Amino acid sequence: MTSIFDSYQLGNLKLPNRIVMSPMTRNRATPDGLATPSMASYYAQRATAGLIVTESTQPSLQGQSAPYTPGLHNDEQVAAWRTVTTAVHANGGRIFAQLLHAGRVSHPEIAGQHPVAPSAIALNADVFTGPKGLLPAPVPRTLSAQEVRDQVQAFADAARRAIDAGFDGVELQGASGYLIQQFLSSNANQRTDAYGRSVTGRIRFAVEVAEAVADAIGADRVGIRVSPGGQVWEMVEDDVPQLYSALIDALAPIGLAYLHAIAITEEDALFALRKAWPTTFIVNPGGRFGPRYTDRAWADQWLANGADLISFGRAYIANPDLVERLRIGAPLNESDRDTWYGGGDAGYLDYISHQH
């Protein structure tokens, strides 16, 4: 029987185990999107994971989702991230950068840019803007067809910068209500051109981004995250089985390294994804802020059901030595929710290993 402690070949990477550190926003970057020495320490502490996927990283200033999130759209950000990747590799780890464009889940107060989206349909929610606190999300500006292609290019350019910064690959954030899923959705995407109208139109942006990024850095260094049927940030996806079947059929020939699925929809739908997806299949059983953390039992269950790798999110906040704790059955530390987003090193670097 497959174990989460078995090694695994992911593209050109030999993973020592099947445990993935899931991307989690921590808002510890500088105001201009630079990774910090504390971020280098944070990720290096967790380098025993088979694979680390970083917090969401904007491919352009316009794509920034919140204050103090890192970017990969200029040379200074590349240099700052290089300190992180160097630290992780020095500790024997492997690390992908997650590329996320916020789309309509943003505000001009965050980065001085007006949000853009598939359609001019506002998110009916407040977004955190920094010093001015929570403010209602504005009506985004509709991307022209040329601007959609520009956003595709921005992802490809950021992927090249990620490799320059020493990352082993990138993950495209196609889940959790951000730009790629906004195009997939049937409520945020009301376009009547080739990027809307039908299932074929709604998947087009995701497929073009994946193709462009694969062309830029090699398909074996690219993964994509999805949340079929996920309703974060007011997402609505009509015909989920048809939509994701079409998406998988279009993505499969590209030869991406992996598909990273958040377990939000029915298990049968995820089993269908596993059956249809030709390469590595990663599952995050806990969903996005689900009522239960991913644990060893859940990981074993999903491996038995065909997943290749299992991603752990919140458990990694307070347990930098999560792999060893799972191996020996040690209890897990509880994280302090008040320090999840922003702040200093408290609740970030001060969680101790089971040996202390």
From TrEMBL:
Boundaries of each NADH:flavin oxidoreductase/NADH oxidase N-terminal domain copy? Answer: 4-332
Gene3D superfamilies with a match to the protein in the record: Aldolase class I
Q: Which SUPFAM superfamilies match?
A: FMN-linked oxidoreductases (SSF51395)
Q: Which Pfam families match?
A: Oxidored_FMN
Q: Where are the transmembrane segments?
A: none
Family matches, as CDD domains = OYE_like_FMN
Against InterPro entries, the record matches this protein to: Aldolase_TIM, OxRdtase_FMN_N, Oye-like
Q: What is this protein called?
A: Alkene reductase
**What organism does this protein naturally occur in?**
Streptomyces mirabilis
